[in-house]
């Protein structure tokens, strides 16, 4: 069989079905990880007694665990203990938790980068701590966070391929299935998958650049 024999509609459709699931998992994970990161990053920045320490402990714990292990634990171990969760939501949960911890550090660093003089000026203008945080510090910090956060989202999209360990029928999983049909299908299937990953990640990187220009 030749290289182009792979490109039949059943094969292409099967790969695209996995690609659509990858996009769905990534989209949910991006939203949830940002929410988690925003909450925990802000908590760690504010240094609220106990809450800040707990948030810091959880972030450090998760950041030092392999994402593959987290996905495997949620998708394979938890169901054995009686906690019923679908493969899709196991992947989303694992990605959201892990990437949320990464984003939390980005947000904490972004908040810390705001000049303390502006914070003091805001407090002297009768703004309380919460008002200063949300109206003065956070808007400036978010503008600076755009490039690293989008870079983290790009990593998240690529990391969806790790869900193959729990046999989630995403892009990488379906590429393995198609490649297993014929040895000659392996290279074209991988090239096709690489193209799909590239299109999404390149698009996100271009969006990040435009947002970075607009915020300066």
List keywords for this structure.
216 residues; mainly alpha; MetI-like fold; 78% helix; 0% strand; elongated
What do these coordinates show?
Belongs to the binding-protein-dependent transport system permease family. Pfam families: BPD_transp_1. This is Amino acid ABC transporter permease. It is a multi-pass membrane protein. This protein is an all-alpha fold and 216 residues long. It has a single domain (3-214), classed as MetI-like fold, CATH 1.10.3720.10. It is built from eight helices and no strands. It has helices at 9-46, 51-63, 67-80, 87-112, 116-124, 129-159, 171-179, 186-214. α1 crosses α4, α1 (9-46) packs antiparallel against α7 and α2 (51-63) crosses α4. It is elongated, with a radius of gyration of 21 Å. The N and C termini lie far apart (54 Å). The relative contact order is 0.16.
Return the string of H and E elements.
HHHHHHHH
Number of strands: 0
In whole angstroms, how far apart are the ends?
Answer: 54 Å
Reported by name, the CATH topology is MetI-like fold
What structural category do the secondary elements indicate? mainly alpha
The share of residues in extended strands comes to under 5%
What is the CATH superfamily label? MetI-like
> Considering DSSP H and I runs of 4 or more, what fraction of the residues is helical?
over 70%
| Average residue-wise pLDDT | 89
